[in-house]
Amino acid sequence: MDPTGICEVFEDSIQIAPDDITFTLNPGEVDEPQEENKVLLEKIISRYKVGKAAIQGSLKLSWNVIRGWKWKEIEDGLLQFTFAHRNDAMNVLARRPWFVCGALLVIMPWPAWLTPQEVRFDKTPIWSMWRVFPLSTATCPT
Fold first, then answer.
1. What is the C-alpha separation between 37 and 3, in angstroms, rounded?
2. Is residue 67 part of a domain?
3. Domain range spanning residue 83?
4. Does residue 38 contact residue 111 with C-beta atoms inside 8 Å?
5. CA angle at residue 41 from 40 to 42, to 5 degrees?
6. Rounded to whole angstroms, how far apart are CA atoms 38 and 35?
7. What pLDDT does residue 28 have?
8. Which strands form 70-75's sheet, in the order they lie side by side?
9. In this structure, are strands 103-109 and 98-100 parallel, antiparallel, or unpaired?
10. What DSSP string runs through 106-122?
11. What is the reported pTM?
12. Contact criterion met (CB below 8 Å) for 125 and 97
C-alpha cells in the first residue's frame, strides 16, 4: 500500500484529548470483583479489655459448626478472622450481631484494597423485638 493511501484512511478522523471523553457508570453496570473474600475484620466495643482466652472460648462455642477458622489480633481491639470457606464468612456476617462476654463485636468484610485502618466500624445491623409500639409517636398517618 502506498503512503498516500494511508493518509486517505485518516483523512476523516478527529483528534480528541482525554479531557474531552466523559462516561458514567451506573451501579447496576459495574461488575463486582469475583474474588473469594474469606477474611473479616472485627472491632471489640467494650468498656473493659476482653482477654484472648475469652474470645477464643466464646466464639468456639458459637461457631462450633464452622471448621477451619482462625483469628489473630492486628492491634488493640481489632481482630482478623480468616475462614476456610467464603460461605462460612458470609454466614457469620449474616448472623450479626455477635457478643463476647458482654462486648459487642462489630464485624465487617475486609476488601483486599483497604488497609485495616481504612475499614469503618461505625455501623452494624442489630435486630430488636418490640412488644408495644406507641402509635402516637408515628410520623405517618395510621
1. 55
2. yes
3. 39-109
4. no
5. 120
6. 9
7. 57
8. 70-75, 78-82, 39-45, 103-109, 98-100
9. antiparallel
10. EEEE--TTS-GGGS--S
11. 0.63
12. yes
CATH number at residue 55: 3.30.70
Per this entry, what is the length of the chain?
142
Of the chain, the end-to-end C-alpha distance in Å amounts to 80
Tell me how far CA of residue 137 lies from CA of 14, 126, 129, 134, in angstroms: 64, 22, 17, 6
Task: Specify if 30 maps to a domain.
Answer: no
pLDDT at 5: 62
Domain count, the chain: 1
Largest interatomic CA distance in the chain: 87
Q: Report how far apart, in Å, the C-alpha atoms of 36 and of each of 22, 56, 65, 82, 130 are.
A: 32, 25, 20, 11, 37
Q: Is 44 left (phi over 0), alpha (psi -120 to 50) or beta?
A: beta
- For residue 131, is it within any domain? no
Mean pLDDT, the chain cut into blocks of 10 residues (142 residues total): 61 70 62 67 90 91 90 88 92 90 90 85 82 70 54
Which three cell numbers mark 132? 408495644
Closest by Cα among 48, 102, 100 to 79: 100
